[in-house]
Design a protein that fits this description.
The complex is a heterodimer of chains A (256) and B (321).
Chain A: E1 2-6, E2 9-11, E3 30-32, H1 34-47, E4 53-59, H2 64-74, E5 78-82, H3 92-106, E6 110-113, H4 125-133, E7 137-147, E8 150-157, E9 160-167, E10 170-174, H5 186-192, E11 197-200, E12 219-225, E13 234-237, H6 242-252
Parallel strand pairs in A: 1-4, 1-6, 4-5, 5-11, 6-10, 7-10
Antiparallel strand pairs in A: 2-3, 7-8, 8-9
Helix pairs in contact in A: 2-5, 3-4
Chain B: E1 3-7, E2 9-10, E3 13-14, H1 16-29, E4 33-39, H2 46-51, E5 56-61, H3 70-84, E6 88-92, H4 95-108, E7 111-116, E8 118-122, E9 125-132, E10 137-143, E11 148-152, E12 168-171, E13 184-190, E14 203-207, H5 217-227, E15 230-233, H6 235-239, E16 260-264, H7 270-273, E17 281-286, E18 299-302, H8 305-320
Parallel strand pairs in B: 1-4, 1-6, 4-5, 5-12, 6-11, 7-11, 14-15, 14-16, 16-17, 17-18
Antiparallel strand pairs in B: 2-3, 8-9, 9-10
The chains are: A alpha/beta (256), B alpha/beta (321).
The complex binds flavin-adenine dinucleotide and adenosine monophosphate.
Adenosine monophosphate is lined by residues 6-8, 33, 35-36, 39, 57-60, 95, 99, 113-117, 120-125 of chain A.
């Protein structure tokens, strides 16, 4: 079997928007989107000690190779990065087009996504990619198992839990409660450098600059403003007096 | 500007969120608003939509459409949008609606703006209001082509009856795509809440994954007892089986607005925030100083809850005695 995991390289720490391009400032340090570590972990769990291949796929700047390497260090077998200057500013329509192209080429039995990108909080991309791949999709998987050719998913909705089954090939997005991602071992980190890792350009996928990035996007950010500020927020470092400080605060607010 | 609104239903009830979006659309569209209803045995819900401003309701009523799965609904909506010439399609966010909206965006090569808190007509163009980056920025977002697709954050609009009459009902017959027939709902565990409802509590102590293990929920319970409050939880810990679904707060759980909300080991993801942000006073304890929860806490304490909470409970109990 072959499992592809879509992972995103996201800015670390508190993010900022670039006032000029009105895009997320991606110039600083980045890391593997922590929600995607759950998807990588789940792929590795499904693989177990079988000969299933786990391929991690990302679309992003060259630095996204760091996040792919982290996934390789966790235990993924191979990495593919789609990178091209023209990709900057891609929205859902454009990003899903690129990922669908690379996934068509890889043709995995199962495609896994994380719960959401921590910078975009969309929690939508899988549905667009699955539509382009014309494959069944199940999102918010809190439990996932595969028996033969059937994928079995338990997921939370607003009303409780649904148990959903679908045949492979399929697309599944996992929730962050599905597992505890492992930390890469030292051996894993050393080994990651030797694992196959490929960089793919737009041309390799048969896409034009006009299909992606800002040009290929159907949404735009028009203006940036500040939301109404929230009262007089206070933040304290929890030294030995934190409990007393909370009691004083509650007393001041007449809550106790 | 023909607008189409997706109406979500559960059992024989239209969801308040989508009725809210419908009444907003009725204001925007100046009386030219249609809705789409998909499911098994849903036809009689159409007249309810009329009360919230729909003048026309497209109904795809078929037993095969009963399971709450997105892809068959993409097939229905794609057909309705194309044939009806709708240039705007609006959804109230939900687990189901998000997957439909994104699938539809790919099918129609249409722009999707998500997590909108509002929408307005500015100089003749529709502009979405999107709080971004832990709500530290309020962005104006637009669409470069039609149809425009939007997903609204839960609770964006109140469902206000518009005094509209009986809508015109139009049946939709669809052939489902092969990939839309792949997934099957084999079981549903609908949770009826039991025990005292957290929606009425004046004080809520909510626990997240930072508690570390299920047994550590006793820390939240003891603190709640000392404050005379109830216990809430995040989806992460509910899905992991640490605490019951009835106590979940957020987009897929309950919406609460107590006088005091104490968040223990909760990161403050947007889907949690939408369920508790209207609490009067929010106190958060989290060991990560960068956690989003601090962006909307009145008192943020950066520290280890395992040290702070037992002391806090003890101090509160001492005060009482
Ligand atoms: C469609 C959808 C619907 C969703 N619906 C909901 C919903 O209804 N409700 C909901 O809550 N979530 C919901 N989520 C999930 C949400 O995005 C987050 O994943 C979830 O809220 C995270 O839960 P958490 O804060 O407990 O866990 P985490 O994000 O893992 O956060 C744990 C926090 O604990 C802190 N911590 C760890 N140890 C300690 C310690 N010793 N002392 C102090 N702090 C510590 C960490 O710094 C961290 O910030 C939904 C997501 C999606 C995609
Ligand atoms: N640029 C990207 N490259 C690969 N996968 C991505 C990318 N962006 C998002 N994803 C995947 O899509 C999921 C949901 O992202 P989103 O809908 O943007 O919140 C993430 O958890 C990732 O699995």
């Amino acid at each position: 079997m072959k499992i592809a995991v879509c992972v995103k390289h996201v800015p670390e720490g508190s993010s900022k928007l670039d006032p000029g391009s009105k895009r997320l400032d991606r110039s600083g340090e980045g890391a593997l989107n922590h929600f995607d570590a759950n998807a990588v972990e789940e792929a590795l769990r499904l693989k177990g000690d079988s000969d299933t291949e786990v391929v991690v796929v990302s679309m992003g700047p060259e630095k996204a190779a760091d996040s792919l390497r982290k996934a390789l260090a966790m235990g993924a077998d191979r990495a593919v990065l789609v990178t091209d200057d023209a990709l900057a500013g891609s929205d859902l329509v454009a990003t899903s087009k690129v990922l669908a192209k690379i996934l068509e080429r890889e043709n995995p039995d199962l495609v896994l996504f994380g719960q959401q990108a921590s910078d975009a909080d969309g929690a939508v991309l899988w549905a667009a990619v699955a539509e382009r791949l014309r494959r069944p999709v199940v999102s918010q998987a809190a439990e996932l198992s595969i028996a033969g050719e059937t994928v079995h998913v338990k997921r939370q909705t607003e009303f409780g839990y649904d148990v959903i089954e679908t045949a492979l090939p399929a697309v599944v997005a996992v929730s962050d409660a599905i597992n505890e991602p492992r930390y890469p071992s030292l051996k894993g980190i050393m080994g990651a450098k030797k694992k196959p890792s490929e960089t793919v350009s737009l041309g390799d996928l048969g896409l034009d600059a006009g299909d992606v990035g800002e040009a290929g996007s159907k949404t735009e950010v028009l203006a940036l403003g500040s939301p109404p500020a929230r009262g007089d927020a206070r933040k304290i470092e929890g030294d030995g007096n934190a409990a007393q400080a909370i009691v004083d605060f509650l007393a001041e607010k007449r809550l106790i | 500007m023909p607008i189409l609104v997706f109406l979500e239903h559960h059992g024989s009830e239209l969801q308040k969120g989508s009725l809210g979006v419908l009444s907003k659309a009725a204001q925007l569209g100046g009386g030219d608003v249609a809705a789409v209803l998909v499911g098994g045995g849903v036809k009689e819900l159409a007249s309810e939509a009329g009360k919230y401003g729909a003048t026309k309701v497209h109904v795809a009523d078929d037993a095969s459409l009963e399971p709450p799965l997105p892809q068959a609904r993409v097939d229905v909506l794609a057909k309705v949008v194309r044939e009806g010439g709708y240039d705007t399609v609006l959804f109230a966010n939900s687990v189901l609606a998000a997957d439909i909206a994104a699938g539809l965006a790919a099918r129609l090569e249409a722009g999707l703006n998500w997590d909108l808190a509002d929408i307005a007509l500015q100089d003749g163009a529709l502009v979405g209001k999107r709080p971004a980056l832990q709500d530290s920025v309020l962005a104006d977002v637009g669409w470069k082509s039609e149809p425009r697709i939007a997903l609204f954050r839960s609770g964006s609009f109140d469902a206000a009856p518009t005094g509209g009459g009986e809508p015109h009902v139009e049946d939709v017959a669809v052939e489902l795509e092969e990939h839309s027939r792949g997934a099957k709902v084999v079981d549903q565990q609908l949770e009826e809440s039991s025990g005292p409802s957290i929606e009425d509590a004046d004080v809520i102590v909510a626990g997240g994954r930072g508690l570390g293990s299920p047994d550590k929920f006793t820390l939240a319970e003891e603190l709640a007892r000392a404050l005379g409050g109830a216990v809430g939880a995040t989806r992460a810990v509910v899905d992991a089986g640490w605490y019951p679904y009835a106590s979940q707060i957020g987009q897929t759980g309950k919406t609460v607005s107590p006088k005091l909300y104490v968040a223990l080991g909760i990161s403050g993801a947007i889907q949690h925030k939408v369920g508790m942000q209207s609490s009067n006073v929010i106190v958060a304890i989290n060991k990560d100083g960068n956690a989003p929860i601090f962006e909307f806490s009145d008192l943020g304490v950066v520290g280890d809850l395992h040290e702070i909470v037992p002391k806090l409970t003890e101090l509160l109990n001492q005060r009482k005695s």
